[in-house]
Amino acid sequence: MSYKDISAKKRAERDSKFKPEWLVPEEELPGPEVLDVLQWPVSSGYLSASEIEITEAPIATIRANIKSKKWTAVTIAKAFMHRATIAHQLVNCLTEVFFDLGLEMAASLDKYYEETGQLIGPYHGIPISLKDNLIIRGQPASIGVVCLAYDPPSFTEEDESPNVKTLRSLGAVFYVKTSVPTAMMIGETMNNLYGYTLNPFNRNLTCGGSSGGEGALVAMKGSVFGIGGDIGGSLRIPSAFQNLFTLRATSGRLPGGGRAALVGLESVPSVQGPMARELCIVEEYCQIMTDLDKNMENLDVKFVPYGWRQDVDLPEKLTFAIAREDDKVHPYPSILRGMDIVIEKLKSAGHEIIEWDPTGQGEFDQLVHSFFTSDGGNKIKKLHEATGEPFFEFMHIYRDAKEISVSDLWDMQSKRNGIVKKFIKRWDGTAKLTSSGKPIDGLLLPTSPYSGAPLNKNQYCGYTSVFNGLDWPAGTVPVTRADKEIDLKEVDYKPKNDTDQLCYDSYDADKCHGGAISVQVVGRKLQDEKVLKMMKIVAQCCGTLDYWTT
Amino acid sequence: MSYKDISAKKRAERDSKFKPEWLVPEEELPGPEVLDVLQWPVSSGYLSASEIEITEAPIATIRANIKSKKWTAVTIAKAFMHRATIAHQLVNCLTEVFFDLGLEMAASLDKYYEETGQLIGPYHGIPISLKDNLIIRGQPASIGVVCLAYDPPSFTEEDESPNVKTLRSLGAVFYVKTSVPTAMMIGETMNNLYGYTLNPFNRNLTCGGSSGGEGALVAMKGSVFGIGGDIGGSLRIPSAFQNLFTLRATSGRLPGGGRAALVGLESVPSVQGPMARELCIVEEYCQIMTDLDKNMENLDVKFVPYGWRQDVDLPEKLTFAIAREDDKVHPYPSILRGMDIVIEKLKSAGHEIIEWDPTGQGEFDQLVHSFFTSDGGNKIKKLHEATGEPFFEFMHIYRDAKEISVSDLWDMQSKRNGIVKKFIKRWDGTAKLTSSGKPIDGLLLPTSPYSGAPLNKNQYCGYTSVFNGLDWPAGTVPVTRADKEIDLKEVDYKPKNDTDQLCYDSYDADKCHGGAISVQVVGRKLQDEKVLKMMKIVAQCCGTLDYWTT
C-alpha cells in the first residue's frame, strides 16, 4: 500500500467511528470563508440546550452537578463527544475516536457512584482529551507518521502512559486523541495522515503545534481540558494560538510518558502538561499529578516525586522583566499591542516592570534545534522512508541534517550549560535594576511572534524553545485577539534576518484578524508554583482569568 | 618537556609547599612493611598533644571550642595542616598544597569573630579538603592529567565551583586538594603526575577512587571532612575502602561544579558530596548546601533547588532488601561477612530483611561504562596525547573505544530508561515480599566486592555504578575491618566470569588484612533524606555511628 492508501484507510476508519447522529451534514457546515468558528457549534443549533450548558460550564459546575446527580458522567461525556465531533468537522482536530469506550468508562463511573455514594477521584466523570502521542490501552499512537498508523494497531494496558493511568484511576473519561504534526517536531499541526488542523479563532491560521489538535479542540470546548507535551514550545504555541492556559513545567515535575519520534533524545527534556480554558484546571492538575503517595506506582522514569509546594507566597507587588521581542524575530503588531496591554495593566496594578535583555535568545533557539537534528535526522528519515511519505517543507532541517559524533554532542551540551549559566546570571543581575534590589519575580514575553500564523508560516519557535533549553517553567495567559482595525502592518519595519523577514511577510491584518494574543510567563527552574501564581495575577490584571467562562 | 619532566616539576613544586617544621624526616617514616598507618601520626610523637586533641575532635567539639575561643581558627588550621602533611608522607594523598592561603583565611575568620562577636557561618574555621577537580581561586586543577598540570596555572574567582564558593562564604578553611586517578575515571587513585595513593588501613591496598585522596586524607584525620564527586562510585568506593560516611545524592540535589574530563557527558549524571568520619557532617552538609534562599547566587546549572526535607519520618521498624552479592562479581569473604553482620544486627533490632534480586546489575554496569566511552575515548586520548603520557592498564577501555553516533547514543539512553523502569518495578514489586505489604524502605548491598583491593586490582565498580545509572541516592556506612584469621579465601568458589575471576584471584587474607568493610545503603530517587536516616539506623545497629570518634 502506498502512503496515500494507508492515510486514506486510516482517515476512513477514524471517520467511521463518529456517531452519525452527532455529525453535522456536510452541506450544512460553514464554508471556508467562515473563519471564526468558535461559536458555530452553539449558534448552528446542532447542540441541545443541555449539551450547551454542560460544555460551556466551568469544571467546578460540572463537578457540582455530578455530585448532586443533576448530570451523570454519561450525559456529560455525550455532550462533549457531540461538541468534539462538530469541532472536528470544523477544524480537523481528532485522530483516534473511541466514543464507545468513553461511554463505557462513564457508565462504570456512574455505577460506582450509584453503588458506593462515593466519587472515584477528583476527575470523576471529567472528559479529558489526549494528544496523539499519549499511550492509552486499546488505541494506536501514530504521531502523524504514516508508517505508525497501525504499528502497533493498539497499545496494551502495560504500555499506558503514567499520567493517563493516573487520570484514569482518578475518574477521567477518555474518548478522543488529537492531531499532531509529523513526528511532533513542528510548530504547526499537519501531517500526511490527516492533513492540516485549523485554528478556530480564524481558519486562515494554523492551530500551532505540536499539541495543535488539543489547542483547537479545547478552544472549541470539545473537552474539559487536554493533555499535551512540549519539547520546544508544543504546549505553549497552540495554547497561545488559541488563548488557552498551559504550563510547560520544569522537567520531571509532572509525570509524562508516551510515544516520541526522537526516542532517546535527552539533551532537551520533553514535558507533558495540561491545556485548559481555566487556569485553576492547570493548577489543580499540577497538584494532583505530583502527589507522591498516591501515584508512586505510576511514575515515569524521569519523574521527580518531590510533591507540590503549598507554601509559595508572592509579594503583594511583583517585579517583572519584560521583553516585547527577542533578538531575532520581531513580533506581529498584534503581539506587540498585547505586550503593551500587559505592561500597562501590570503597571496600573502597581507592579514593577523592568526591561529584559533578550540577547542570545535567537542563537540559543538554534542550539536547541540542533539537538533535535543531532542524529542526522535519522529517526525522522526512517519514519518517512518506511512508506515513502514526503517531507513537509518545515521538516527539511531533519531531511538535510548531518549526523554528528558524540564528541560534538558533548561539546554542544557544554555550550548549552554555559548559556544556561549566562541566563541565570542575567536573571540574578536584574537585582541591580529593581527598586527592591532583589531579582525579578518573573519574566514576561510573547509566546510566539505570531498571533496565530497563516498556514505554513509558523517558522520560528525561539520564544518558547529557549525555555526548554533553560528548563525554566513557562506558562501562557490569554490577553486579547488581533484586530485588523488597529493591528496594522508596520510598513516602516526593516526585518533584520531571513526568519524575521518571513515573519514580517506573513502578517496581513485582514487575514490574521481575530487571532489569539497571549503572553508567556516565565520563572526560574522549579518555580512552577510561583509561575502559576504569577499567571493568575497577570490574568487578573488583564481581565482574562475568566476569558472562557463569562 | 617530556611528561616525566612535567610530572617531576609538578611534584617538586608541591613538595616545596609543605612547611619544613611539619614534615617528618624521611628516615623516620615507617617502612613499606608497616601497612596500617592510621594511628601513626599520633603514635609517632610528631603531633603535639594539642594537635592530637584538635584533629581527633568531633566537629561539634571543634565548633564549641571555636565559639568559646578555646581554639582559634588558625590553631585548628595548623593542627590539620600538620596532620595532613604527615598523612601525605604516609599515603601520598595531596596534589595542591596552599597552607599560607589557608592560614590567611583562618586569620581573617579569627579577626572577624574578634571584631564582631559573630561566627561567619556554620563552617567558621572548619578545615575542609577538596578533591582535585574542585575549582578554587588561585589553584590549578590537574585532575591527574599531565597536560593539565599548568593549564591553567591557576583558576580565577569567577571559575570557582559553586559549592566551594558557598563553603567559603560559610567560613570554611581551604588548604589542600587531594589526589585522583588520571581523568578521574578509574576506581583507584594513580596517575602519571603523582603516582599511587595508598590506603592507610593497609598500604598494600588502593585507597579507591576517584575521590581517593579524599578517602585517604579524611581517614588520616588530615581534614574535618572532604568534598568529592561520584559518576560511577567515586565518592562511595574510597569511602567504603576507608570506612567513611558519604552520600552520593540524587543528581541535582547538591550543588557541584568543577573540572571534568568527559566534559559534556550527561548520559550519567555526576554529583559531588561530602566524605566524613561522622554521619552528622554528611547530613548537615546536605541541609546547608540545599538551602534555597541563601545560596541562590551560587547555584550550578544542574542544581535543583528543592530544599532539604525536614519532615521525613521513618517507620519504627524498617524493611530492607539485601543483596549479599550482585550477579557478576562475588565479593571478598570479608565483605560477605560484613553483610552477614549487617543482616544479623538489623534482624536483632527487629527490622525486616528480604532478599534483593540483583539480576541485570552486572549488565547495567557495562551500559553505564559504555556511556563514559561513547565519544570513542577522544577526550581521554587527547589528554594523553598532549604530553605522550602512557595509558594505565585500567584506562584501556578509553584507549580502545570506538566513537559512536548520536543515533546509537539515543538507543543506549532508551535502553537505560527501560532498565531504570525495570528496577523501579522491582522495587515496587517488593511489596509482595514484605510483611507490611508495602515496598521496602531501603536496599542494602556491598559498596564494592573488595574490602580495599590490592593495587591495580579494583577492576569492578558495578556495585556502585548501577545507582549512578538509576540516579538513586546511595550512601556508605562502616561495618568493621577485614580479619585474616576469619576472612579466609573461599577455596571452593568457582568464578563465573573473567571479572569475577580477577576479583577472586586478587584476594589474599594476609595481604588484605585490616581493609575496611562497609555497606551501601540505597534509596529511591530523591529519597536522600530517608537514605541518611536509614544510614544512621544501620550504623547504630552495627555500632559504627561513632566508629571514628570513640
UniProtKB/TrEMBL annotation, chains A, B:
Query: What range(s) does the Amidase domain occupy?
Result: 77-532
In Pfam terms, one family for this protein is Amidase
Quote the EC number. 3.5.1.4
Keyword set, alphabetical order: Hydrolase
Where does the record place the catalytic residues? 131, 210, 234
Coiled coil start-end: none
Name of the featured protein: amidase
In which family does this protein belong, per the annotation?
Answer: Belongs to the amidase family.
Instruction: List the catalytic activities from the record.
Output: a monocarboxylic acid amide + H2O = a monocarboxylate + NH4(+)
EC class of this enzyme? hydrolase
Locate the residues binding substrate.
184, 210, 231-234
Q: Which GO terms describe its molecular function?
A: amidase activity
